[in-house]
From TrEMBL:
Organism per entry: Hosta plantaginea
Protein name: NADPH-protochlorophyllide oxidoreductase
EC number: 1.3.1.33
GO BP, sorted A to Z: chlorophyll biosynthetic process; photosynthesis
Recorded family membership: Belongs to the short-chain dehydrogenases/reductases (SDR) family. POR subfamily.
């Protein structure tokens, strides 16, 4: 049978390119988990995805009810789940005020981390039951949350602090919408959410890899400077960012090539190692990259896990 892979946020950018790369192999049925059904359908059609190899299901990560509904719809469809890719994200670098999910969490951490955390926890049993040779849970990370890199040192830097803001609920009545309890900063909230993504991948690995054999992995696909992620940035930034990444940092990668990288992490039989954060070198060969101190701190990972369980209603 074909493998079944769920990709969140497959209606644009990296998620769409990955969905296309996998659907074209003929070996995968791609379930595009998207908040905008029509946009996803249009995107799949205009990318020329073979229509027998994908379907679209509604998922809005900014609502825990929607996450639960998605999980129940997927279970009812009877499709076994072989790989889950947590890819969707919002980035609000120019927002002066926070916005909120349906459950009242600051949007970037609410969508990128908390929505995915609940989704991954609720689908873990499905992955455990998969008879696929290599079931996987992939959480897309980023260099920007890694303060051991040049890009990760551009202020404002990621920093979860003592997580007093997360403990208090990241909402407008708790006093702070930031994980560390500080003042709202959209760019930092995104970076913090990516640190949570990378910490959660490792915490899943520690808790479940040995018992289940599931591969838990994260990756930095390169700087895909052309995606919708930068849609809320100022126009001058959007104009100059792609050539800057292409010619100055040379970290630029096209959406198509980044999609092939993520597709590799989903399906390449040689990338089964669990607990790994993959990156690619100049010749596009994958290697196991090092995470920053904070993004590999096991104590912080456990704390994010436990506080997040409370916020999403699992504890
Ligand atoms: P895009 O903005 O192109 O894609 C983000 C996707 O997430 C879109 O499909 C969007 O849906 C979806 N999404 C946003 N909010 C929600 C929600 N509430 N519920 C469901 N889906 C939602 O950005 P990228 O492709 O660049 O980003 C994909 C991943 O890659 C992210 O995890 C990002 O952190 C990571 N990444 C990106 C890099 C880059 O340089 N671009 C570098 C490193 C990592 P819609 O189409 O409806 O808006």
């Amino acid at each position: 049978r074909k493998g079944n892979v769920v990709i969140t946020g497959a209606s644009s950018g990296l998620g769409l390119a990955t969905a296309k790369a996998l659907a074209e192999t003929g070996k995968w049925n791609v379930i595009m988990a998207c908040r905008d059904f029509l946009k996803a359908e249009k995107a799949a059609k205009s990318a020329g995805m073979p229509k027998d190899n994908y379907s679209i299901m509604h998922l809005d990560l900014a609502s825990l009810d929607s996450v639960r509904q998605f999980v129940s719809n997927l279970k009812r469809s009877g499709l076994p789940l072989d790989v889950l890719v947590c890819n969707a994200a919002v980035y609000q670098p120019t927002a002066s005020e926070p916005s909120y999910t349906a459950d009242g969490f600051e949007m970037s951490v609410g969508v990128n981390h908390l929505g995915h955390f609940l989704l991954a926890r609720l689908l873990l049993d499905e992955l455990k039951e998969s008879d696929h040779p290599s079931p996987r849970l992939i959480i897309v990370g980023s260099i920007t949350g890694n303060t051991n890199t040049l890009a990760g040192n551009v202020p404002p830097k990621a920093n979860l602090g003592d997580m007093r803001g997360l403990a208090a609920g990241l909402n407008d009545t708790s006093g702070s919408t930031m994980i560390d309890g500080g003042k709202f900063d959209g760019a930092k909230a995104y970076k913090d959410s990516k640190v949570c993504n990378m910490l959660m991948m490792q915490e899943f690995h520690r808790r479940y890899h040995e018992e289940t054999g599931i591969t838990f992995a994260s990756l930095y696909p390169g700087c895909i400077a052309t995606t919708g992620l930068f849609r809320e940035h100022i126009p001058l930034f959007r104009l100059l960012f792609p050539p800057f990444q292409k010619y100055i940092t040379k970290g630029f990668v096209s959406e198509e090539d980044a999609g092939k990288r993520l597709a590799q992490v989903v399906s390449d039989p040689s990338l089964t190692k669990s607990g790994v954060y993959w990156s690619w070198n100049k010749n596009s060969a994958s290697f196991e990259n090092q995470l920053s101190q904070e993004a590999s701190d096991a104590g912080k990972a456990r704390k994010v896990w436990e506080l997040s369980e409370k916020l999403v209603g699992l504890a």
